[in-house]
Amino acid sequence: MRIEKLTLARKTKFKTAYYVARGEQHGPVVMITAGIHGNEVGSIAAATSLIHRLQRGQLRFDTGTLVIIPIVNQSAYGLRIRGLPDLNRTFPKAKGQSARHPLSAAIIRVANRYRPSWVLDLHEANGFSNVSRKYLGQSLITNHWSASATLSRKIIHKLNRDISSKKRKFNLRLRHLPGSARFAAVTLFKAKAVTVETSWELPLSLRKAYQTKIVRHFLDHIGIKLHEVHARKDALV
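Given the sequence above, the corresponding structure tokens read:
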């Protein structure tokens, strides 16, 4: 497995690191983004942990490619704010349109380069979707016509079997949101795209754990099998 560190929006004040991890065998390409909104720190923690564990050799995979942008909006993250403007409203709404922010434009260029078949956009939100439909916390969101809905339902079923609290269970939301990263991935690249939303009402450690588990469930079904690598005991002697 090879990991390359690159720079998104390199020639702008919004530059931020992204990583391309490649298995030894060709396979699906999955893009994972986090930190489009700077105050959604659970998603950032999960994406950052994933790339760190891959770099340290604690995780590996043999087939496919991961493109990971762990903190898209560095300036918003530094202030722990959603971001002005809201970056998730600046992506192209149709083919032939341009992105309205240097970061969203840079993400589109990276996606055009690697052509992901799946995009997982990690976020956080208010409330609990199982309490009221007006809340998005604890939900997976995809577009009405996206083929990703079937797999999202399977993963929600797996997650909810291990969640005893009814209000903490996950739900599927089908939302049409032009200008979002998810909408652009489907419209421009015909990718299957899912927005992951954990609830701010939960402790950070639990939100990170849910985000990590969801990503790994998706990757496993898509065909990128992550393997835990344990240090040999005799290596410490």
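Helices lie at 41-55, 74-79, 102-114, 148-161, 181-189, 204-222. Try to locate this feature in the token string yourself.
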